[in-house]
Amino acid sequence: MHYLLSSKFLNDLLPNKFCDPQDLKADPKDEYLKTLRAIIRCFTCPDRYFEKVVRQAIAGIGTDESSLTRVITTRAEVDLKLIKEAYQKRNSVPLERAVAGDTSGDYESMLLALLGQK
Ligand SMILES: [Ca+2]
Fold first, then answer.
1. CA pair distance 82, 79, nearest whole angstrom
2. Which one-letter DSSP state was computed for residue 62?
3. What is the per-residue pLDDT across 45-95, written as a single tens digit (0 to 9) for each?
4. What's the gap in Å between 44 CA and the centre of ligand 1?
5. Is the pLDDT of residue 106 over 50?
6. pLDDT band at 27 (very low <50, low <70, confident <90, very high)
7. Where is the signal peptide (predicted)?
8. Ligand 1 centroid vs 60 CA: distance in angstroms?
9. pLDDT > 70 in the chain, percent
10. Distance 102 CA to ligand 1 centre (A)
11. Average of pLDDT values for 2-13?
């Protein structure tokens, strides 16, 4: 069902010239194609898409709190378990540990609670 919805969505969305997925790689810097690729990833492999959003939110100095909060709160009762599995697989670190290492205080407690671990 998810697949059917996705296909219908994509058929309605994509102009004919993008029928061949290879065309989507034509210009890696094209913002429109970049957005389309993100939408396609989001619909075809949501766990991998959100794993990437979380990974990029945690990576580097500081934390992209708005992205991290958005993914963990909106996916908590949807597919957070799959996102956690994808994160562990990709980064060889449990997502809870990465979040605990990158955040602090009440914010950390809230995220860890949503991740299913106090
Ligand atoms: Ca960081």
1. 5
2. S
3. 899 999 999 999 999 999 999 999 999 999 999 999 999 999 999 999 999
4. 27
5. yes
6. confident
7. none
8. 4
9. 75
10. 5
11. 54
Task: Look up residue 50 and give its two tokens.
Answer: 């959100």
CA of 2 to the centre of ligand 1 (A): 33
C-alpha angle with apex 49: 92 to 27, nearest 5 degrees?
115
Q: Which is nearest to 17 in space by CA: 36, 2, 31, 4?
A: 36
**Which domains are assigned to the chain?**
1-44 (no CATH), 47-118 (1.10.220.10)
Are the CB atoms for 24 and 33 separated by under 8 Å?
yes
Q: Alpha helix locations (H) across 46-116?
A: 46-58, 65-75, 80-91, 95-102, 105-114
